[in-house]
Predict the structure of ornithine carbamoyltransferase.
Amino acid sequence: RTSFNSVNLKGRSCLTLKDFSSDEIKRLLWVSEDLKHRIKHEKQYLPLLQGKSIAMIFEKRSTRTRMSTETGFALLGGHPCFLTSQDIHL
């Protein structure tokens, strides 16, 4: 299994795939697959994002993208917050 510490994102923005090297993207995908397996098949609770919040702002409204992001963040113990253009006065 891949180590959770194999990709260091601390202090980095994740706005586009161009922000990452191909090796970092591969490691992110491996870690994602490992997390999904642990939660879905091993029923492990992994509070990796406990005490963390994420503000989600989407250029185009997408219920599926919003819900999958909110669900994933919450499954790891975080608090997702969806902001509309009216919320941020755009």
In short: The chain has a mean pLDDT of 86. DSSP finds two helices and two strands in the chain. Strands lie at 53-56, 79-82.
